[in-house]
Amino acid sequence: MIAMNISASQRRGEKIKSFIFMNVGLLIFVFSWTAFLIPHQIAGGGVSGLAAILSYATGISVSYYYLGINAILIAIGVAIIGKGFGFKTIYCILAATVLFRVMPLIPWVSTIDEKLLNALIGGTLSGIGIGIIFLQGGSTGGTDIIALVVAKYRETSPGRVFFFSDLIIIGSIILLPGKVLQDVIYGYIVMVSFSYVIDMVLTGNKQSVQILVFSSKYADIADRVNSELRRGVTALSSTGWFTKSEGKVLVIIARKSQLPEISRVIKETDSAAFISVTTVMSVYGEGFDQIKAGGKFKWKREEKVS
To answer: What CATH number corresponds to the domain at position 233?
Structure first.
């Protein structure tokens, strides 16, 4: 009974923690727009970018367009990703709508005259905010929903999905009176910085490394890595070409966060060990990521039987 209460308490604590982080992400995301992008009429991607462009054209608050466009997309998130995600999406959309109305009342906007710097800062902050929201299983709607749907079935980065969908949205700002090609370029700068930062936020804790260990004490190192760090090790036969001596090279695939621990174990076992560390793009298998592949649509043509 006590164990069940502790477990329930832990789950409740995790939900509260997730809720707090999600709200922090929302604040950062909306702040990037109200403080850096909207005051300088800089375009951006996603529904927020489309809402901002429509606001520049009509003078109507971004919040109304943001809520209206997202209302159409909520059903898609609920149907494909699930009810839990749908609830968080609805909450994030409503909270962001309120923040888009409230935060402009705060008397602080960027005083930087250079649009380039505002675009870079705004895109970076927006990527950080959306990344935090994504890590908590939430979404601010729009192309965020599309990115998560694609990521569910295909092994592709969210940044790439944003890139293609945002090209058209940002490019549409040139249709507004008084806007020139330079305004489109500023929007693309926002898009690039946003895509890069959100990928760093989302994959930062999943980055993996490949470690090659050259040591005469390879057996002791492999045993310690297996037993103490619970990480698999592969021993490959090798030949030192200068000495012509036979030996083993250890290959260890691990999360980047585990590198300090593995290095400590290696150096404690053999201070003269030679270590090579390289970053790997993707690792699939037990203890790492799983390959995602969506099925292809198959169209069948019905033949008439005479």
So the answer is: 3.30.70.120
Using a pLDDT cut of 90, give the percent of the chain over it: 39
* pLDDT for residue 272 is more than 70: yes
pTM for the structure as a whole: 0.68
Rounded to an integer, what is the distance from CA 176 to the centroid of its chain? 31
Residues 6+ apart with CB under 8 A from 299: none
Same domain for 231 and 128: no
Side-chain half-sphere exposure of 285, counting CA atoms within 13 A = 8
> What domain range is 50 assigned to?
2-205
Asked whether residue 256 is domain-assigned, the answer is: yes
Round to whole Å and give the CA distance between 209 and 278.
6
Reported as a pLDDT band with limits 50, 70 and 90, residue 305 is very low
Q: What is the pLDDT of residues 170-215, one digit of tens each?
A: 999 999 999 999 999 999 999 889 888 987 887 765 678 889 999 9
Total domains in the fold of the chain: 2
In a domain, 302, yes or no: no
Residues 100, 237: one domain?
Answer: no
Domain boundary among 157, 177, 205: 205
Could you tell me if residue 304 is inside a domain?
no
| 144 and 19 fall within a common domain | yes
Whether the CB-CB separation of 93 and 67 falls below 8 Å is answered with: yes
